[in-house]
Amino acid sequence: MRKWLKSIKKKSVSVGVTVKNALANRRGEGFVDTAVKILMAVVIGALLLGGLYLLFSGTILPTLTQRIREMFNYQG
């Protein structure tokens, strides 16, 4: 029983030290860094979606429409 109580005490002290160190830690990510990351993600996403839209509307969809018309235009 004493061993068990001693191990519980050691674990609680260890957890207490870990929590104290985590709360005392002043390193952190600033708001500006996060805003720049979000802005970069939005801009890159918009460019990617714009490129896909141009690719589909100019290249893929007209070809697909033509193939579908040829497939159903069977006069045999």
From TrEMBL:
The chain crosses the membrane at residues 34-61. Keywords: Membrane, Transmembrane, Transmembrane helix. The keyword Transmembrane applies. Pfam families: DUF6133. The keyword Transmembrane helix applies. InterPro entries: DUF6133 (IPR045765). This is Uncharacterized protein. It comes from Paenibacillus durus.
